[in-house]
Automatic annotation (TrEMBL):
InterPro entries, alphabetized: 6-PGluconate_DH-like_C_sf, DUF2520, NAD(P)-bd_dom_sf, OxRdtase/DH_put_Rossmann_dom, TM1727-like_C_sf
Domain Putative oxidoreductase/dehydrogenase Rossmann-like: start-end pairs: 14-135
PANTHER family hit by this protein: CONSERVED HYPOTHETICAL ALANINE AND LEUCINE RICH PROTEIN (PTHR40459)
Record's protein name: Oxidoreductase
The organism of origin for this protein: Streptomyces griseus subsp. griseus (strain JCM 4626 / CBS 651.72 / NBRC 13350 / KCC S-0626 / ISP 5235)
All copies of domain DUF2520, residue ranges: 152-278
Any Pfam family matching the protein: Rossmann-like
Transmembrane segments: none
Amino acid sequence: MNASVSKEPLDARDRPARLTVGVVGAGRVGPALAASLRLAGHRPVAVSGVSDASRRRAAALLPDVPLVEPAEVLARAELVLLTVPDDVLPTLVEGLAETGAVRPGQLLVHTSGRYGAGVLDPALRAGALPLALHPAMTFTGTGVDVQRLAGCSFGVTAPEELRLAAEALVIEMGGEPEWIAEESRPLYHAALALGANHLVTLVAQSMELLAKAGVAAPDRMLGPLLGAALDNALRSGDAALTGPVARGDAGTVAAHIGELRAHAPQAVAGYIAMARATADRALAHGLLKAELAEDLLVALADQERRPGGSGTGEPR
């Protein structure tokens, strides 16, 4: 992160002028960002959304902002947020550019983590100013998202001449700009997906299993544990590893897999994969003794070869 940008007051020359704002794609992200920009003094003037859920989100977060077609959003707004799914973005940009909807000097911002500014090249050739501003945050589609933007990191990619404008917009939304090189965007996004999206899957699986084990309030049981684990991991990295895999308790790990095979067979493959990854990291950082690691990996391979295991049945 550029500390001088995020912590020092912005010079007036570096602040974007008060802009009219449009949103193409009223999913969970776009309306929240537009609402945050409104708090900074910008003026949302148009939003497009197809589904009923999108229209409800727009009405809740951007009341009195008219719902119009995407081309009309671009016609009305000086700053346009393209908040559509990753796979839709390239086609959308090409279509808007080919139909003449993009205007010279218009700020065109997408929020995809996967893409940098290059995906906006068709709009750039039409005279638009391309910015990639990806909030590293999970969104609910409700007003709480606007509050969560305070202190949220944004992955920022833009032409060098637009860097200050991009970072200023992020700061105005309460975020912290983090510069990501164009070629690093896919790796950056994969890292976030690995940490956040997969975490949701793991937590949901854990709550389901606790409920099957008779725990009345799995969320209440997991909350303090997961909060401490996350805090320890962010502070200490691999040194925070604990549990039977990090200790090399092969028998316990085998018992876990047996229980999962009986009660949640869909979780077996994930458990074995994560156990292997955890063992590798614990071994590399001196937390797991080599002889215990060997026993553990043999046990994992044996469990994987059993009927109903996660692999092909071939020994590793």
